[in-house]
Automatic annotation (TrEMBL):
Residues 22-183 form the Lipid-binding serum glycoprotein C-terminal domain. It is found in: Secreted. The keyword Disulfide bond applies. This is Bactericidal permeability-increasing protein. It comes from Chauna torquata. The gene is Bpifc_0. GO terms for cellular component: extracellular space. The N- and C-terminal barrels adopt an identical fold despite having only 13% of conserved residues. The N-terminal region may be exposed to the interior of the granule, whereas the C-terminal portion may be embedded in the membrane. During phagocytosis and degranulation, proteases may be released and activated and cleave BPI at the junction of the N- and C-terminal portions of the molecule, providing controlled release of the N-terminal antibacterial fragment when bacteria are ingested. It comes from the Eukaryota. Monomer. Homodimer; disulfide-linked. One of its GO terms (biological process) is defense response to Gram-negative bacterium. The cytotoxic action of BPI is limited to many species of Gram-negative bacteria; this specificity may be explained by a strong affinity of the very basic N-terminal half for the negatively charged lipopolysaccharides that are unique to the Gram-negative bacterial outer envelope. GO terms for molecular function: lipid binding.
Length: 183
């Protein structure tokens, strides 16, 4: 897939060949690149509604998304550092945090740029529903002041839990998504 994850796919059963179509039952497992290990998840069978008005039907199971999440978590893809250049683009500084958290204002009288380190502390959970899917993430955020000599000083750490729902729709032959922060 990329430098962090690979996919192993194989037929679950022999292809079913019918006059108007061929049914291929593929099983895809995503795993960290170069480190094929067994998945901590069990694939559950699922059925695709019987329809015959399109040329191609493609379905992804919850198992595919779970193994993807596991592979990217194991590879460290959910650990992100937002450096001074990005923070300055959004104008995030100790002054902004100082207006929200009084202890930061006491420590940092002079405004300094900040660096954010976001880390997933658990494997993100993905669950599929009829018309959307839900993503639950647990993580931590460390906020550092970047001092004039380029050293950093930890300002604070916070734990973060997010639960979002994503609904996908097709409008004007384009796949569109809407994101809702549940908590």
């Amino acid at each position: 897939i990329d430098d962090l994850a690979e996919i192993d796919y194989s037929l679950n059963s022999l292809p079913a060949v019918f006059r108007p179509y061929i049914d291929l039952d593929l099983k895809g497992i995503v795993y960290p690149a170069g480190n094929y290990t067994g998945s901590p998840y069990v694939a559950a069978p699922f059925a695709i509604p019987d329809q015959s008005d399109s040329m191609l039907y493609l379905a992804f199971s919850e198992y595919f998304f779970q193994t993807s999440s596991f592979a990217y978590y194991t590879a460290g893809a959910f650990n992100i550092t937002i450096a001074e250049e990005t923070c300055s683009y959004f104008n995030i500084s100790t002054e902004i945090f100082g207006s929200i958290i009084p202890e930061v204002a006491k420590y940092s009288v002079t405004p300094y740029p900040v660096m954010l380190k976001l880390t997933a502390t658990e494997i993100p959970l993905i669950s599929l529903q009829q018309d959307s899917f839900t993503l639950e993430m647990q993580g931590s955020m460390e906020v550092f002041a970047v001092l004039p000599d380029s050293t950093t000083q930890l300002l604070f750490t916070m734990n973060v839990a997010a639960n979002t729902s994503i609904a996908l729709n097709i409008f004007d032959q384009k796949l569109m998504g809407s994101l809702c922060l549940n908590r």
